[in-house]
Write a structure and sequence with these properties.
- There is one protein chain.
- By secondary structure, the protein is mainly alpha-helical.
- The protein is built from six helices and five strands, in the order E-H-H-E-E-H-H-E-E-H-H.
- The protein is rod-shaped.
- The termini are far apart.
Length: 175
């Protein structure tokens, strides 16, 4: 279980003034998780290490925005769900790592979507080509059937005539 320290406990351990600790908490809320338990601000022990880094960077002459950028690259960002008055805040919902993972996942999903759209366009083009081929084939079949029907009609007409011209000249007489 996490160990939560009050501002006074942090000041005693580090020798920093209370106002400095509170300023770090106010200036870097995305990186220092704070809970108010029994009207006392409490900070997890891991956040004290972040405050130590902040103090070191300030001593090196860094500005607040530059420190925030560096912390953003090094540490998870705390996003805390808003709670009603009087109840302690909940644990962080998302960290910077979670956000980066979600961003990467969204990028991958976007790429997969683009590939899907391209594949759909290819398939639609293939369908159009196949429809054209089938229409040509159907037209050819219809023309062949018409030709066969004409031939069949001629054959039937020929067979109905029992006698041809030679039959009339040399053949038997009709009864």
């Amino acid at each position: 279980m996490e160990e939560w320290l009050s501002v006074r406990e942090i000041a005693e351990q580090t020798g920093w003034p209370d106002k400095t600790i509170r300023r770090y908490i106010d200036d870097f809320p995305d990186f220092i998780l704070v809970r108010r338990i029994d009207r006392i601000l409490r900070v997890p022990k891991e956040s004290v290490e972040i405050m130590d880094q902040i103090r070191y960077l300030y001593q090196k002459g860094w500005g607040k925005e530059r420190i925030k950028k560096l912390l953003g690259d090094m540490h998870p960002m705390n996003i805390v769900k808003d709670t009603s008055v009087g109840s302690p805040p909940t644990s962080p919902v998302l960290t910077r790592g979670d956000l980066v993972s979600m961003k990467n996942l969204l990028f991958e999903m976007g790429e997969a979507y683009k590939q899907s759209q391209e594949r759909i366009e290819q398939l639609e083009e293939e369908i159009r080509a196949l429809r054209g081929t089938l229409e040509k084939r159907d037209q050819t079949i219809i023309e062949e059937v018409k030709g066969m029907n004409q031939t069949l009609s001629r054959v039937e007409a020929y067979t109905e005539r029992k006698r041809g011209i030679f039959g009339e000249w040399f053949g038997r007489k009709k009864r």
